[in-house]
Structures are given as C-alpha cells and as structure tokens.
Queue: 4 jobs
Job 1
Amino acid sequence: MQVETRLATVSDAQFIALLGRVTFAETFGHLFRDPEDLKEYFNRTFSVAKIEKSISQSTNKFWITFVDKLPVAYAKLKLDSPSDFIKQAKVCQLQKIYVLRDFLSLKIGYQLQTLLLEEATAGGFEKIWLSVLVENERAVSFYKKNNFVEVGKHDFQIGKEHFNFLAMARDL
C-alpha cells in the first residue's frame, strides 16, 4: 500500500471538495433531521469554487493524502487565526483533518496533524487551536492525546440543527 501526503494545490480542489462532503456525511450526517440542511451546507462549504479560492489564499495551507493514488484525506491549517479563547498574538487554527472512514486505521490523521504542527511551528506561531463537536468523542480523545486542552465552548448552527463545540488549544 502506497501512502503519499503532499501540500494541496488548486488542481486538487475537486478531490478536497468531494472528501469534505463524504467525510462530513460519514461523521455528522446522522445528526441532521432534514437532508436539505445537509445538502445546503455541502453546497455552501464544499463547492469546488470555494475550495479553489480557499487554497489560493496565502493564509491557508492544505495537505492531501492519497493511498494507492486514491484521495482519502485532507487537512487545513489557517495561519493568523485569532480566537476569543486565546490571548497570544501568534495564533493559528487547525481547521480540518478529514479522513475517509475506511482509512482511519492507517493513522493518516496523526500524520496530517504532525505536518500541520510542523508548519505552524516553522511559521513562528505560539499556539494552535481548533473546534471539535462535543459529541465527536473519537476526535476529542485524539486531540487530548496530542496535548490539546479545552479552552472554551461555543455553538454553531447549520440549518435547523444547533451544535455544541469545544475550543481546544495547545502550545507550539
């Protein structure tokens, strides 16, 4: 099995858009009572045009992972991303680590996180933060094992659904 992770380019936007939709549905789809809310969120958040624009911004870094040439995961780091929960000036955000369910056992999420942390450290950032759904126990546990601590709570609404999130952070 050949695993390749690299920085993503605009030409990877269609892979990332599709990975975003599939992995989000795998993880959170069951939480939506109205399928139209989920579809609307996908169209707004994971359109190819939006991902292309996001990749093109200098404050964003994306990585994509392929297993035997199949796109299976991606990650996004947002540079210079302050949080209400953090006082330091040099703060960045781990915005996404999404891995297709069938490939979770390969520890690709950990590899992507390592790349994000190395990039953030090299950029001179003091702290990195993220938001994670409270009910996503697998992710919360993963981040705790990797030295992230809870720094706050916030909510987020998608369509008719309200979600509770933990803000977590760690020093770099």
Job 2
Amino acid sequence: METRRRIVIAEDHTILREGLRVLLSSHPDLEVVGEAVDGREAIRKAEEAAPDLVLIDLSMPKMNGMDAIHEIRKRSPDTKILALTVHKAEEYVLTALQAGADGYALKDSTHQELVTAIRSVLAGKRYLSPGVSEQVIEGYLAGKKAGGPKSLWESVTPREREVLKLIAEGHKNREIAELLCISVKTVEKHRSNIMEKLDLHNVSDLTAYAIDRGIVTR
C-alpha cells in the first residue's frame, strides 16, 4: 500500500480551507493531518503533526505567512513548505522563497496545478506557479549567489516588523514601547527606519502596506 504524504493546511478562510481539505483528501497519496487559521497555529501544528508538507497562505491573522514560513523552516527543517497566495508580484515570491518556502502557488491555479505543485515540492523540487515569471526564480538564485539584498522587505529587521505590525494595528508610540519593553525614542527610531526603507511617508501608508503584505488583516 502506498504511503500517504501528510499535509497541514494553513488558511484563515474557512470555505477555502475546507475545500482544500476535501480536494487533497480525494487523492490516495495525500492526507490532511492538521489545519491552522493563523500563522502562530501553523507553526504549532507543523511541530505537533510533523507533516511532510505545510500548505500556507501568506495573508493570515496574528502572524503573517512570511514570518510563519521562516519559523516553520527553523523549527521543522524536514517539513516542505508550499506558499499558496493571490500575490503575483516578484517581491512576494522572492520574500517567500527567502523565508524558506520550497514552492509558490497561486490561488487561481487549477486543481491539477495545485496537486502538481504539492507533489513536486514533496519530491524535493522547487515549484513556481505558471502564473509567476520564470525570471523570478532566476533572479532569486542569482541574488542568493551574490549574497546581496534582494527586496525592500528583506531590509526590514525583525524588530522593525514587530513595530510595523503594532503601528498598523493602531497602537501609539508609548503603547508600542510598553508592549515591546523598549523606550519611546527607540520606537520612533524604528518607525523612521521603516518609513525610509520602504519609502512610506505616514501612518496610513504603513497601515496599507501592512495589510497588503498580510501582516495585519483588514
């Protein structure tokens, strides 16, 4: 009897998550062993279930998919990761791959394309949805070899990302300082650095950027 490959689905939209579970479970070589509705739960389920693959959305509450991918890769290095998203922009693709994703599939993919993506990643291959230019992966590999910066988002430090999330959630500088146990002056410095790195100019711009990246939900 063929061994079924174990999959965890991380997707905050219930209808889509349930649809994916039904779709994947219809294949005799695939088995859904866990589901997550946010990034933090995805990390926990990946550790608890030890799946062969995590299928993960990039826009989720509590912790966005990019950061969750990074943590899953660090904590569960043997687990394959396939990003599933609506975003086609090169920056998203590169950032997901840099975070540790083994593949990148689009939500407008057909049933067969998604299954092909899953099986390719499980076989140890890197997969990019046909809707994403092949030049993206070439640019990623070239940039990785060169060792230089690859995207604006990559230049933002983990602490700055935390500050950005809290700003987008509506917290004031003093509240952020208390939550992160740092000074108000340090918060202001982080805010200034974020704006400069991402070429954003006010709180509205920061919030819109955070929503677009899935750092916070609408």
Job 3
Amino acid sequence: MITKKQKTLSTIAVSTTKASTNYHHGDLYSSLLTTATELISAGGVESLSLRKLAMRIGVSRTAAYHHFTDKNDLLIAIATQGFVSWKNKAEQIFTDNYLTEREKYQTFVHYYVQFATENAAIYQLMFGGTLWKDKKSPSKLKEVAYPSFQFQLEMTKSWQKKGLLPASPNTLRLAQVTWATLHGIAQLVIDGIYADASQIDEMCQCAVDLFLVPNKK
C-alpha cells in the first residue's frame, strides 16, 4: 500500500525529472532556432521573445537563456544559420560537374531568389536592417556573412576570366550590382508586389540573359 507521503515524494521526483528533462531537452539549441524561425515567419520579429519561445517549446526561460543571452543574440543565430545554409547550397551548385558554367550561373540566380522567397523571415534577418542598420552588426554575424559575400565575389571573378561575364567592369562592382539585382527581385516577391511564379522565373532568366556574355556562334 502506497502511503500519502510516498505519493508526495513520487510526485516531487516526477516533477524534478521533468524539469531536468526540459532543461536538457534533446537538442534544445536546434529546437529553439527552429521554433523561433516559425514564430517570426508567422508574426514577424516583433512577435518573438525568449519567454514566448520557451513556453512554446515547453522549457523554462532559464533553459532558453542558457543558449541565448537575449532576443538579439537569438536573431543573430537564426541569420547565421541562414548564411551557412545559403553558402553550402551555392557551393554545391558551383561544384556540380554535371552543369556547364552557364548552367551553374543560371541555377545560382534562380536559387538565390527561391531561397529568399521560401525563407523570407530568415532572409530579411540576413540582409535586412534589423541586424545590419547603423553598421552595428556584431562580429560573430560578420564572421559568417562576409565569407558568403567573398565567395560570390570569387565566383564573379572566375566567371569573368572564363568569359561568361563581362571582363571590363570592376569585379567588386559587378558582384555588387548582380547581388543588388537579385535582392531587388527577391524583395519585390517577399513584399507581395510580384506573386506570379511565372513572372518570377522570367525576371530571373532576364537577369541571367542581361549579365551573361552571349554565346559565340
């Protein structure tokens, strides 16, 4: 027969175990990032707080603060994850031996806009004013963002040498103008100005045709 005291002790033990499990929640860091991204995708950056995030996952605020010092730190982590994902995919495109150089460039242009529009909340953190305004971006964000920019610059230089892109423009300026063009298309889609998928594809292809040097017949 279980006494009242034993029941009380059992309840305390279960509660302690749950609290411990919540605090050391499987891969809590990944869960926080995934859920935070879902929250800002649904309601914007303003809808996110570590308190709401902890409640959504079912852990204590202490557990959330164990991984992120504040909301801005969490947003930086989301943007950082975005840059890593973006760069990994770009590298896959550029090293795909089954694609010609022209096909690689075309694929990259379409991928850039697709990534931005399918991951709008992350993309706007990566390239928007929330984290970059007034040049106050923390060093840990720059450490992952700048290599992504540099990678695109190196590819632009490579394509110029191979004759795919015009050789005369300054490489940095050409990379910047290409980036600005793709960013503009992506932002128009994100803002809802362009929503027709066929129009988006046509704009991307138009950008490809404008930047690439025509094939010699």
Job 4
Amino acid sequence: MNRLADLEVVAFDLDNTLYDEGLYYEAAFERIAPWLAEHSGRDTARVRARLRAILRDKGKHYHYLFSDILTELGLDPKGDLPAVLDLFREVTRRLEPFPGVPALLGDLRRRYRLGLITAGQRRFQERKIELLGIAPFFEEIVFSSTLPESKPSPMPFRHLLERMGGVAPERAVYIGDNPLFDFRGSRAIGMRTVRVHNPELDGLATAPADDAEIHVECVGDVRALLL
C-alpha cells in the first residue's frame, strides 16, 4: 500500500468511519422503547425489536424510522416525534470508537492537522462526539447540516479547509465510508480520498466519481498510508 505524501490535513467522517453508529442507536432504543411502550400500551421488548428491524431493513440513513414506528403503534407521527427525538439526543451511555482509533488519532495529530466533517443534525452529532470523547483530537469540526449545502456537496469540504487557514485541497485527504455522501464533494475540489469498508454498503452501485481513490478494510489501515 503506497503512502500518501505531501499532506497537511487529514479529515474524517464520523459515523461508521470512526465508530459503529449502531452502538448509538442501541443506546437510544434503550430510552425510546420504554417511552413508546408506555404511551401505546405495547410490550417494551417487542417495540425495541421492531425498532431494530426497521433500522436493519431501511439502514441508518433512513430518515423516517421514528415516524414509522409512531404510526405503527397508533401514536402521532408529528406530535409525538419531538419527544422521541429528545430521547434520541439524550443518550448517556459512553460510546467506544473502533479498535485503535484513539491511538491512531493521537499519532496522526503529531504529524498532521486533523479535521472532522459530519452530516446529520448538529445536536445529535455533537452528542455522539461527546460520548466518544474524541473532540480534543480535532482542530476543526464541521457540522455540514448547518451549512447552506450539506454533504455530498463540495461546500463542507471547502468550508473545513477555509477554516483551517485556506489549506490547498491537494494537501488534504478525506477518510469516510459512504460513497453516497463522502467522496463526490471532496474529490470535486481536489482532495485525496480514502474509503473505509462498511459491510452495509457492499451492494451499493457506485459511480467512479462518487467513490474514493483508495480503499481500506478498516480505519486502522490508514496508518500505513499516513504514518
């Protein structure tokens, strides 16, 4: 595996790149399932199982998980949704990064400037970062949903490099897992790109312009590319 040279900035995606987002959903379901069961008169275990089934069938980027379960349970998919989202935001269980990620970020920070670009609502993403305990590793964190254009637009990638003092795109690499969001915009402005294998996306048809130039099996493998 050839090393990436002449880089100043190493930027990461968050969900399913640095940790398994399923851990956050599991922690959230522990809070949400009892609430849904209480308000619908259903069994908590069955409600939790149904939440897991919808997530498994639709995927983590499906935006109507909680609206669907509220409708299925005969609750108000609009009026009750804010309460469910508050519970989703209030997860307290500490999250664990993928193995070796803290050590990797620490080693990278000694040689490069580190950035993070994550989509999703800012309040949820901030909570995940807090529970992972990884914020101190990053010089800049961009919540792309707060910008006029989110990922996969080039805007969040340009925004990160501008906030880091106008670093040239060819001096930066973006490491993510999802070709639907992570590489079209970063490649369009000239950043290098690395795709971390995500088994949930194995069957996804990917156009060359939407894929990364380098593929690795796990995020720890970027050590050989960068250190």
